[in-house]
Amino acid sequence: MKFGIMKKSVAFMAALVLFVSMLPNASAAYAQRTQTAREIPFSSASASSEYKEDGITFRAGYAIDDKTKTDRPRPWIEGAEGSGIGETLKLSFDGTEWINMLSFRLGYARDQARYDKNNRPKELRVSFSDGTAYNCYFDDVNEEQTIRFDGTIATEYVEIEIRDVYRGTDDDTCIYQVRAFYVS
Ligand SMILES: [Ca+2]
After folding, report:
1. How many structural domains compose the chain?
2. Distance 92 CA to ligand 1 centre (A)
3. I need a labelling partner for 49 at 20 to 30 A (CA). Which of 6, 75, 141, 177 fits?
4. Is 80 in the same domain as 131?
5. Do 30 and 45 have their domain in common?
6. What is the pTM of this model?
7. Cα–ligand 1 centroid distance for 91 (angstroms)
8. Are residues 83 and 138 in the same domain?
9. 51-74 pLDDT tens trace
């Protein structure tokens, strides 16, 4: 009796192996989660200096405002003598946020003439309230450039120091827009 059952099982397994071997070959395909970038809005901005001209202050807040909501979008421009090396822009969240990516529009990015006229940051040192800091390097292009960090950073602010610039005809360095994201 036992022997009979075993024989039947062996026959079943043989049939199963034959059936599986007849299935069409297929390459492996693994599902991947779509990466989503959630923007974490800044709530306030301050700077070590702000450039003033014709009654306009190119204030820190311009670096975090919504460029689509104005006809004359402006950057933050440092107000120090020379290229503004060492000047800082501090962008704060409303409390502690988790971020792992920053995006930058650098220079006076509204149009090419303004972009060429003013300095564009080449190197920025980016510091967070958790004590970490990164030297970030940028190309001289009037496009959004993103910096993706290895880990996730829990921080109350993003502090940006100008370290090096691409020179324009005027020695004023501009940061047009900075945005923070959590990419999952
Ligand atoms: Ca300057």
Report:
1. 2
2. 24
3. 141
4. yes
5. no
6. 0.81
7. 20
8. yes
9. 999 999 999 999 999 999 999 999
Tokens of 88: 């800082």
CA separation for the pair 77, 60 (Å, rounded): 8
Is residue 28 domain-shared with residue 75, that is, in the same domain? no
Query: Which residues have CB less than 5 Å away from ligand 1 (the ion)?
Result: 84, 172
* 83 CA distance to ligand 1 middle (Å): 5
pLDDT digits (tens, 9 = 90+) for 119-178: 999 999 999 999 999 999 999 999 999 999 989 999 999 999 999 999 999 999 999 999
Assess whether 163 and 121 both reside in one domain.
Answer: yes
Q: Are residues 79 and 168 in the same domain?
A: yes
Q: Are residues 95 and 20 in the same domain?
A: no
Q: Is residue 87 a contact partner of residue 78, using CB atoms and an 8 Å limit?
A: yes
Range(s) of the domain holding residue 27? 2-34
CA of 107 to the centre of ligand 1 (A): 13
Distance CA 95, CA 99 (A): 13
Ligand 1 centroid from CA 51, angstroms: 8
